[in-house]
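Now for a specimen:

…
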Amino acid sequence: MPTSTDLSDLRRTFLSRAHDDIQALHARLQTDGGSGVDPELLDDIARLSHRLLGSYGSFGFPAMARNFELIEEVALTQLSSDLDARPALEQTRLPDMIADMLDQAGVLRDLGYEPRTEDLSVSPLVDPRDNKRILFVDDDTNLHGLAEMYLKEEGYSSVVYETCAKNAVEYLSAHSVDAIICDWQLEGDNGLDLLRKVRSGGLQPSRETPFIFMTVPSSKQAIERAGLYRPDGYLLKPFDAHRLHGVLGRALAN
């Protein structure tokens, strides 16, 4: 398994980046959030919260993940409401919630975090000598390094990253992979669009290439819609090495 030092370095980098992202959003709320009718700002709040609930949780901060899940829910509720009836942002408590998260993110960044040593105590799922390649698609780049450590421990000698479905399709048009892990919510085409294209053929990987969706527990409708295209598993965010091992193992066994 990855060492505590490796994980600690990744966490410190993530904590610094997350603080900067929250700080930038907080600054926008201070200058642009007065009217509360800017759908672009609400959408940015929801998107950032969605990313951070997954990455904070995966890096070992469940309380922060739950808070951002709540912020995402509030922002999406406002986006779905009638524009004329939409209250000012300050009435939704979103600015206060973001300010609280900025304070907590600053404390975590300044204190640092030393994770417990994890020991999976299982054999890799694939033989490293087979030079297996896996494609990991997620627009949250904070998770890329963490996923690479976990996947290389599972025996994958090559981990390829893309941040959107369009780039993933371009890569798969010229390269084959042995498995795909893809987030459901992406900029532009979503993960389901990518799964459809893989299952329809015409790309380098086989139509039956193992395909695992990453999603959050609230995305029940997403899971139901994806069933028609036969994904091989669902990896709920936040994830850790144990959960990834179990989901990937079941997918490869099918």
The chain has a mean pLDDT of 82.
